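can u do me a favor
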């Protein structure tokens, strides 16, 4: 351990593909100050790290504290990670390779730094402070452009030997199905992620079957985001509603396999599509999981919608840093 715990404040950091978000928390995890900045992929890893340090520094200044008051920093990161060494191995959107996030931040702030997968951090945040509080086992699934997954079991984030796991979006659901961003075929996210949903909805709009969507968003996938889908359904585009419901059911079928493996007491739903259409997703996924699990697991779990929204990853990263740092020194 290269740095010691000194203060009582925690920083949570969410490193996203387009923006970074930092917050300072007091020792009861009340956020004191939040700062957001664009990530700027073109700056590369060195520029990006400098930017991360700058955002954290300005958050500390605004909170009126110094680095010496920090107990630790937790960072939620995308992409494959070397968790024990605090290294971001690769970020598809940022172009970082083997970036030593922990070492650089520990050098800059002199406190312990813990990195976690961003979805895992979000699920942990909901487990500590949100919709999955106190669950023995919570499995989170976050349908968005990809379909993120994470799980907390007996108070610990489930992880692999070196990196994160629970890649629910890459559960194979169709043999030789559509090509996935990961390079394989037939993954859940290639069938039921936002891009697949938007592509099907664009086709419906093009065919004249989704007039409200056509007016709101046209047929460009960039514009067919969860809000546009939600508004077109509310305006009466049943073709779009059927597409979204089918995607939710497909997610539910895949989740039935996860329930059979882990027997969670809570299935947590989040992400952009769920935030805009919480009832539709909760109802479809709940029904689909219950229809597919082994009968003894029927209704053995709650399906809940995430509560912390944009704060889940920063809060969870900060709280996971606390859990990790305190269990190291115990
Ligand atoms: Zn895949």
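np, heres the sequence
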């Amino acid at each position: 351990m290269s740095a010691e715990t000194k203060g009582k404040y925690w920083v949570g950091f969410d490193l996203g593909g387009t923006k970074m978000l930092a917050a300072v928390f007091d020792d009861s995890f009340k956020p004191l100050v939040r700062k957001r900045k664009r990530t700027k992929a073109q700056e590369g890893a060195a520029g990006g790290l400098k930017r991360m340090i700058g955002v954290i520094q300005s958050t500390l200044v605004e909170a009126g504290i110094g680095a010496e008051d920090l107990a630790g920093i937790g960072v939620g990161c995308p992409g494959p990670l070397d968790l024990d060494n605090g290294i971001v191995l690769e970020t598809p959107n940022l172009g970082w390779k083997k970036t030593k996030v922990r070492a650089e931040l520990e050098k800059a702030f002199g406190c312990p730094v813990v990195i976690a997968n961003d979805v895992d951090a979000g699920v942990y945040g909901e487990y500590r402070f949100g919709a999955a509080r106190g669950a023995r086992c919570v499995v989170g699934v976050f349908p968005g452009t990809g379909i993120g997954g994470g799980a907390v079991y007996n108070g610990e984030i489930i992880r692999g030997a070196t990196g994160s796991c629970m890649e629910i979006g890459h559960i194979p659901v169709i043999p030789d199905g559509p090509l996935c961003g990961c390079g394989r075929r037939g993954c859940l996210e290639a069938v039921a992620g936002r891009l697949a949903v938007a592509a099907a909805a664009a086709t419906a709009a093009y065919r004249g079957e989704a007039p409200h969507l056509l007016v709101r968003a046209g047929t460009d996938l960039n514009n067919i985001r969860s809000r546009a889908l939600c508004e077109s359904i509310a305006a009466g585009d049943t073709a779009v509603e059927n597409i979204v419901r089918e995607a939710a059911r497909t997610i539910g079928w895949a989740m039935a396999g996860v329930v059979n493996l882990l027997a969670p007491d809570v299935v947590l739903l989040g992400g952009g599509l769920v935030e805009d259409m919480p009832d539709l997703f909760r109802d479809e996924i709940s029904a689909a999981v219950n229809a597919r699990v082994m009968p003894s697991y029927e209704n053995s779990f709650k399906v809940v919608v995430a509560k912390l929204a944009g704060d889940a990853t920063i809060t969870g990263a900060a709280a996971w840093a606390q859990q990790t740092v305190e269990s190291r020194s115990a």
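The longest strand covers residues 31-38. hope that helps!!
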